[in-house]
Every structure is written in structure tokens, then in C-alpha cells.
UniProtKB/TrEMBL annotation:
TM helices/strands, residue ranges: 6-27, 34-53, 59-81, 93-111, 139-157, 186-209, 221-248, 255-276
Main location as per UniProt: membrane
Keywords: Amino-acid transport, Cell membrane, Membrane, Transmembrane, Transmembrane helix, Transport
Protein name: Branched-chain amino acid ABC transporter permease
UniProt KW Transmembrane helix keyword: yes
């Protein structure tokens, strides 16, 4: 029983990390119709900002620095590189893939390609008793962060003016534009929100993995895309449910099966969901 509880909590911690990345990715694609392959780089920016700031201003200040860095970089990327390329899907993909590769090279030049130990506070490395299992505090921290972000995003989308514009734009962008609303401002805001969530994921991933690497964001982005597709493009709650499914599946299969089998099962789950949707539409 204790093993199942431990696997469930650590799996939910991984799910929380996937959700933090996927939430912004889902919003950006749902509203702006941009498949942003540079989104993982926003996570790396947040991770290294937190890595640099934590020894100077403390853990909370380091996390805030990661969130701010992710939001600012994402907004700048939208304004400078993405905005001129709306309605040009292939160009968007090429630019964001190139930016992701260039971003990894930049951090390798600045910090070296090797992993660096993240300056986590001691309390994040402790364990607590939960239902007979000793679970790591860092997993609980990730779960709490994801729950707060999920609640904040749902409240923003439901009860704020820009949230209503974003929801309407996801459903019918042409109608919103016809009403005289400048959707482009909403695009920049969505990129900033997504970058902030990715920056938070980067800061907390440093705690979770106890290190930061230039390629960390790119490797996590693969599973974030799986979560977004399973959960439905533009659906925050769908991404949350899909993240839980993928994270738990990976954790349990990797433990009870062979190493890496969980990753294969996550891809298999994606294939099953896509095939099921296709059959439903044909019916």
C-alpha cells in the first residue's frame, strides 16, 4: 500500500510539471493557432533565472524571478518573431524550432552543457508521512503549484474581460475580430501567461530533478505536447486531466515494468486517443 501511495504522489508531481508546461501551450494554440516549439525554452529560461536568483534573494524570490523571466521572454518572442508570421504555419514552426535550438546553444555557451545542481532549500528535500508512505515534499510542492495555477487560470478565463475575450477567440476568432476587439493584444497576453506558467515549471523542475540543464525544457516539451493533444487543444481542464493520466501511467509502468516503458505507454495512449476520436467523428 505504501508503495502505491508513493508512486501515486510522485506520479502526480510529474503530472503537475507536465500540466504547468501544457497549460500555456494549450492556450497559445487554442487562441493564436500557433504550434510553439520554443515553449520548452521558456521553461529553461525560468529554470536558469531561478537558479541564478535563488542564492541572492531566496527560494521564493528565485521562483518569482523564473516566472517573470518566462513571461517577459514569451511576450517578446510573440511581439518580435511570431506576430509577423500569423497565418503562416510552416514559417511559425521553422522559427520556433530554430529559436528552441538557438536557445539551447545559448545556455550551453553561458552555463556549459553540463547539469548544474539547483540551490533547493533543505525543506524541499525532506519527506513526510502520508497514508503510511514517506513521500517527498518536492512532489507535494509541484502538486500545490499546479493546483494554484489551474484555479487561477480558470478564474481568469471565467471572470475577467480578457479571459472572456480569450475564451471567445478560441471558439470563433473571426467573430471576436468583427466585434471590433483587438485580438492581437490577447495573443501577447496569452503568450505571457503561458511563459509565466512555463517559467514556474522551470523553477520547480529544478527542485524536482535537483538540477538544471540547457536541454531540460526540450525533453519535457515532448510530453507536454502529448498532454495537450490528449486533453484537447485549447482546453485547460482537459490538459489537467490528461497530465494526471500521463504522469501516473509513466510512474507506475516505469516502476512495475522496464525502464522507459512508461514513455512508450504515454505515446501509445496518445495513439489510442487519436484513433478513438477519428472513429467517433466518422460515426
Amino acid at each position: 500500500m505504501s508503495t502505491i501511495v508513493l508512486l501515486a504522489v510522485t506520479g502526480l508531481g510529474l503530472s503537475a510539471l507536465y500540466f504547468l508546461i501544457a497549460s500555456g501551450l494549450s492556450l497559445v494554440f487554442g487562441l493564436a493557432d500557433v504550434l510553439n516549439f520554443a515553449h520548452g525554452w521558456f521553461l529553461t529560461v525560468g529554470a536558469y533565472a531561478a537558479y541564478w536568483a535563488t542564492p541572492k534573494v531566496g527560494f521564493a524570490g528565485g521562483v518569482a524571478a523564473g516566472v517573470l523571466a518566462g513571461a517577459v521572454v514569451a511576450a517578446l518572442v510573440e511581439l518580435v518573431m511570431i506576430r509577423p508570421l500569423y497565418q503562416r504555419t510552416i514559417a511559425q514552426v521553422l522559427v520556433t524550432v530554430g529559436l528552441s535550438l538557438a536557445g539551447v546553444a545559448l545556455f550551453q555557451a553561458l552555463f556549459s552543457p553540463d547539469a548544474r545542481a539547483f540551490p533547493s532549500p533543505k525543506w524541499t528535500q525532506q519527506v513526510v508521512d502520508l497514508l503510511g508512505a514517506r513521500v517527498p515534499v518536492k512532489s507535494l510542492l509541484l502538486i500545490a503549484g499546479a493546483v494554484v495555477v489551474l484555479a487561477a487560470l480558470l478564474a481568469f478565463l471565467r471572470w475577467t474581460r480578457y479571459g472572456l475575450i480569450i475564451r471567445a477567440g478560441v471558439e470563433n476568432r473571426e467573430m471576436v475580430t468583427a466585434l471590433g476587439i483587438d485580438v492581437r493584444k490577447a495573443f501577447t497576453l496569452v503568450f505571457a501567461i503561458g511563459g509565466a506558467a512555463a517559467g514556474l515549471a522551470g523553477a520547480l523542475s529544478g527542485v524536482y530533478f535537483e538540477s538544471v540543464t540547457p536541454t531540460g525544457g526540450a525533453s519535457l516539451l515532448i510530453f507536454a505536447f502529448i498532454v495537450v493533444v490528449i486533453g484537447g487543444m485549447g482546453s485547460i481542464t482537459g490538459s489537467a486531466v490528461a497530465a494526471v493520466a500521463v504522469g501516473l501511467l509513466q510512474q507506475f509502468v516505469n516502476y512495475y515494468g522496464s525502464a522507459g516503458a512508461g514513455d512508450v505507454c504515454a505515446v501509445a495512449l496518445l495513439a489510442i486517443v487519436l484513433l478513438a476520436r477519428r472513429q467517433t467523428r466518422q460515426a
